[in-house]
Structures are given as structure tokens and as C-alpha cells.
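Workshop exercise sheet. Pairs work together: one partner reads the sequence aloud, the other fills in the structure field after running the prediction. Swap roles for the next sheet.
Pair: D.N. / O.F.
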Amino acid sequence: EDLPLDPPGEYANSCVGRERMFEHFSRVHGARVSLIRLSYAIDMRYGVLHDVARAVLAGEPVQVSSGHCNVIWQGDANDIALQSLAQAGTP
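Structure field:
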């Protein structure tokens, strides 16, 4: 929480912008919010599993240069998000 945010790319920057908007309106309206950053949510249209499956289906080598990735099943991400509401507050 103390590290400065320096996200790479437009999407990551837009996520920070979204957080700032939630923080701003939480302060203005006194609304409680819960900010959650997921490393990666699984969606079968894109992402790590899609890339692996596409390569396997095409008979191409699977890229393993990153060495690791963080993933979470969408159902678990939803469960955690709902549980976080009990901890929500205003910045």
C-alpha cells in the first residue's frame, strides 16, 4: 500500500484511474467501498489459459518464458469480492 503506483500500459493505468474515482466519490458521498486488485481472473476468451489452449490446439509450442503467473477462478474472485463488502470503508 505504501509503494507508488506505476502501472505498465493503458489498461493498468485505467484500473488505477477507476480506483481513484471510487476513492473520490467515497469521500464526497461518505459511501463505503472495497477496492480489490486481482492479479488475473480467468476468462476463456483471453489470458493465460486461452493462450495455452490456443497453442496446444494449433500444435504450437507453449510459451513458458514468464516462468509463472497468478490466476484465480472467477467464482472464487466473486466470492472474495462479496466477502470484502463486510470490510468496506471510506478512505
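Discussion prompt: Residues 10-87 form one domain. What would you look at next?
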